[in-house]
């Protein structure tokens, strides 16, 4: 067993431990990774409410064209464009990214590898402040003359470029600035996540002792940092096209609008994995704990993640099969796209093998984790239809794409978040959430979610195109009564949104409980965050933990009775 090392010898940990803190330094300008995690978490959740409200407004228009939408008013064509554009932008860049990478990365990395904070706490704080600024810029873009940007979340020129096609030139410029600022925030965050996980681990923790979710957040951060550069450059070019008369993307003056599509999707496809990997890591941690099993093939899972990450840079043009790219290139991108489904399928099999033979406890976090795999599989399998260039000529820009996309992103951004949040809530606040309310919220979300998007597969298969604000002249397509399906999807959405009140109520009453009933390790989990107090104080542990090679790969002295075998070779 390794000697324990005095905390302040390695981390200068006592410096900030006992200082009295004002409101501002504790809640607003904190450098504590847990407080920054909470700031990201609650900003992300607030943005999710805005994005969800937008979905409600435009789905009401689709189900009941021309209706006065309660709480919104009439949705005009311009409104509709701005609503769908910003719904997509918000849910991906201001919900999935801040919650999955930034909030969970910040909360978990130092606690799970056994250190007291990020290695660059001030950069960490700056990252959140820039992120908050980006959110403010985005929201302000809805209120400028011309309204919010309505050119689609992919911002293809010419609809996003200046001139007769772009009806919201100030809104679209602010949208671009907001997105670019948001990328800067996550570049700063990514530096911290990678360096902290690699350099600040507890004494005794080897590279292949790092918890799976930390590994996956690290890989996701690297993917983000490696893919976002071209898009930041593209955003600057598009901003110049809009505002100072350049013509990078204007074919009339020798530019090329497809260049934007390459820059966007070179980032846009890896971006899926940037948010997918943390969600998969969260799911993996939860499954191990509630199946009482080690992760099956832990190292294989990590190597597969590396492989997925590399492959994710080779598939982007599958979004451009109908943009006029050379059909021979389309063949190549079809092959790479089908290839990338192999490691993802393998990871799903690893989940199943981890569950196999376990003593499974169906707690609320476990239900979310299982639902993640089930629902994400539907998204993955339907992606294969779209990745095949021949089939995509038909499916491109139909509601089939929309349904596929939401079967990947909803499991990632919403199910993954609820899994992680309900699992780590006791650690975040020291109190258990109500299990009955948790399960009501789970089923009240999962069932209507499928009710929204299964009809959209049917609509897309019948040829209904996306980004049209009024389908009332197409009540039936291919002989099927389509309007009923649109109404069904909208009603399902309203039911799903209503059930989110159960979640917020559960959070509130659990947080308000007087008694801190969680203890250090309510789920009897192995990883290091469960050795700290709940919630962990500033600095996380009075003395930083040391791990040792025990009967299992690593463990902490005195906690052997909680252990299930973890990462045992063979
Ligand atoms: Cu893609």
Descriptive overview:
This protein has 570 residues and is mainly alpha-helical. It has a single domain, classed as Cytochrome c oxidase-like, subunit I domain (Cytochrome C Oxidase, Chain A), CATH 1.20.210.10. It is 63% helix and 1% strand. It contains 15 helices and four strands. The strands form two sheets. It has a two-stranded antiparallel ribbon. A hairpin with a 2-residue loop joins strand 3 (476-477) and strand 4. Helix 4 (77-113) runs parallel beside helix 13. It is globular. Residues 1-18, 557-561 and 565-570 have low confidence and may be disordered. The structure holds copper (II) ion.
What would the keywords be for this entry?
binds copper (II) ion, mainly alpha, two-stranded antiparallel sheet, 15 helices, Cytochrome C Oxidase, Chain A, 570 residues
Summarize this structure briefly:
With 570 residues, the chain is an all-alpha fold. The chain contains 15 helices and four strands.
* Category from helices, strands and their pairing: mainly alpha
- In CATH, the homologous superfamily goes by the name Cytochrome c oxidase-like, subunit I domain
Major beta sheet, strand line-up: 1-2
* Total beta strands: 4
The percentage helix is 55-70%
Largest sheet: 2 strands, antiparallel
Note the total helix count.
15
Distance between the termini: 23 Å
Instruction: Let me know the average pLDDT.
Output: 88
The topology string of helices and strands comes to: HHHEEHHHHHHHHHHHEEH
General shape: globular
Top CATH class: Mainly Alpha
CATH topology, by name, is Cytochrome C Oxidase, Chain A
Uncertain segments of ≥5 residues (pLDDT<50)? 1-18, 557-561, 565-570
